[in-house]
Amino acid sequence: MFFENLSGAGKAIAVLTSGGDAQGMNAAVRAVVRMGIYVGAKVYFVHEGYQGMVDGGDNIKEATWESVSSMLQMGGTVIGSARCKDFRMHEGRLKAAHNLVQRGITNLCVIGGDGSLTGANLFREEWSGLLAELVQQGLIDEEASQKYSALHIVGMVGSIDNDFCGTDMTIGTDSALHRIIEVVDAIMTTAQSHQRTFVLEVMGRHCGYLALVSALACGADWVLIPEMPPEDGWEEKMCQKLSATRSRGSRLNIIIVAEGAIDRHGKAITSSIVKDVSTECLKGESKNLESYLQIQHLYLIKYNNNNTNVFVCTCRSFENNLKTYKLLAHRKPESELPQSNFNVAVLNVGAPAAGMNAAVRSAVRVGISEGHKMFAVSDGFEGFYKGQIKEIKWADVGGWTGQGGSLLGTKRTLPAKHIDKIAEQMRKYNINALLVIGGFEAFLGIMELLAARGTYEELCVPMVMVPATVSNNVPGSDLSIGADTALNAITVTCDRIKQSASGTKHRVFIIETMGGYCGYLASVGGLAAGADAAYIFEEPFDIRDLQSNVEHLTEKMKTSIQRGLNSNENYTTDFIYQLYSEEGKGVFDCRKNVLGHMQQGGAPSPFDRNFGTKIAAKAMQWISKKLNESYRKGRVFANTEDSACLLGMRRRALVFQPVVQLRDETDFVHRIPKEQWWLKLRPLMKILAKYKTSYDISDSGQLEHVVLNRPKQSEAMAAI
């Protein structure tokens, strides 16, 4: 919508980063510059944030396509950012308006936190008055005042704190979570070796998002956040929890403290206080670790000790994280647990995906909390029919969240040929419900079990599938567990490849990704890595397209080309590599890289840990509900369509969908959904690579109305 207003000659846009820096700002700047040029507008950099806009001169420079090359993978902000006292004053904003009008700029893209965006909004509100003053002072004429009478502003929230309403995730938050989880993963081995307790303090000012999500992602024993001040006597309760964990055989404890954590009386709870408390209660060594991530935080929320008002935005995502953490972190005594007498089996099916173990841990602990007896099935359906089934306890899944692969073991075997033996095992262990975590094979397996219900009553139980595959090719879900970790692996590899080519300006890389016939990894990975093209099965291509790409690349060097695994049976990675090598002689040389199974391995990303934890918890709650609904005359009997579902993410919401209803949405030959949301992103990748193509820029998206008691203007402006 913003770029639609820019279409046409004579338009100009300025982009600036303000406040603290956040990883991802450069990617946003690059996209703004190239998209602005694509729609025919002049684009200007404003260096050093609002200070540069006030000072003018060389701080406001026209940007070119090439000026944002090689900045996608860089941290911080290459155009600079600074706090600006001058812009808080009317005189400073008047100077800024004059500098913009001199260059014909009436469109601003501001990337920053709450203070930065509040300042931008104030600037817009004052714009007509500022122009009138400039006319009165003789700095501009009346014609210029009329010509530039409207100021359009779009704001992108750049803050690691994730403390802004109206968005579930801000630029920089995911990178900050990665840094935190890297620290936690690194210290866990030491903590286990020496039976230590580590207290980790993370940033966030008065927002506990980083602390809460990192606690959920690493399975922390205790978390302290400002949104949930603990009750009086929290010290004793925390000590009881830590002692109980140690008594069950755990050799470590992780406590995460948000920077702005407070008690019910507004008194700060620091990591030093928590360390002293834990040391005293455990009579052992407690290490204190402050993780500031070397990234400055942004101002948003003002805590006032006099009236105890805290301005906190708790969006749906934050609330879901908090509920899930409470459910998993604190185990109730056996006497307080409900007794359901239901047995629930959990298994992994298909290829391993990072985040599977987090999902299993979540399912087991939620199931036990619901009063069920949980059973783990090793090696998928193959292990099921072989009887590789055993009860799994709360403590058995301790430490699983951060481990990659599948600790249960997983195979691609489908159940159809062994239905009789699986039914026998269901009867032997009195399995009342199934939770299947896996990829397309898991989807097919659930359908085969469903089809056999008419023959085997043992299969007439609630079944739910949670999608987990790096390929992200399961129908009924926009995202699958493991896909984010795979994308990270692709992006990191591409960044390293770019660095290796930094001294060679005439080189093209052909990179093959996984995904089978699904082009998700190639497309989204290509977009994140700044690839020039991504060849996928969903968009057929021929030799003319390849030749066109080669000609395009004669004008651009040091670049990468992404190719999906099964994008074309004839135009293989080797063929494309040889074509580019031959046609590029004298202009560039070519290299190829097949990423292979490295995309499956490694520790899961914070997103996959969090996603796996939350989706499995929701799946277990659904199972509990269905068990109660289908329990009749001393037995569980469920044979309706809605008793066998896939739990998927559809437009930010987790939705249960009967698997039989997903049949028509599926291309079974190529193992992909018939409609895939990410295909809409592909034209954007071509635009950012300077191809001439069409792109729908009129989609304004869905606006979410947010009501929030905001800080006073003077307080918010303090961050500019």
Topology:
Layout: H1 2-6, E1 12-17, H2 25-38, E2 42-46, H3 49-55, E3 60-62, H4 90-102, E4 107-112, H5 114-136, H6 142-147, E5 152-157, H7 173-194, E6 197-202, H8 209-218, E7 222-224, H9 234-247, E8 253-258, H10 271-282, E9 286-291, E10 303-304, E11 309-310, H11 316-329, E12 343-349, H12 356-369, E13 373-377, H13 380-386, E14 389-391, E15 410-411, H14 419-428, E16 433-438, H15 440-451, E17 463-467, H16 483-500, E18 507-512, H17 520-529, E19 533-535, H18 543-553, E20 559-563, H19 573-583, E21 589-594, H20 606-630, E22 631-632, E23 635-636, E24 644-650, E25 653-658, E26 666-667, E27 672-673, H21 682-688, H22 713-717
Parallel strand pairs: 1-2, 1-4, 4-5, 6-8, 6-9, 7-8, 12-13, 12-15, 12-16, 16-17, 17-24, 18-20, 18-21, 19-20
Antiparallel strand pairs: 2-3, 10-11, 13-14, 22-23, 24-25, 26-27
Helix pairs in contact: 3-4, 4-5, 7-8, 8-11, 8-20, 9-10, 12-20, 13-14, 16-17
Notes on the structure:
By secondary structure, the chain is an alpha/beta fold. The strands form 7 sheets. Strands 12, 13, 14, 15, 16, 17, 24 and 25 form an 8-stranded mixed β-sheet that branches. Helix 3 (49-55) crosses helix 4 (90-102), helix 4 (90-102) packs across helix 5 (114-136) and helix 13 (380-386) crosses helix 14 (419-428). It is globular and about 90 Å long. The model is unreliable at 291-314 and 698-719 (pLDDT under 50).
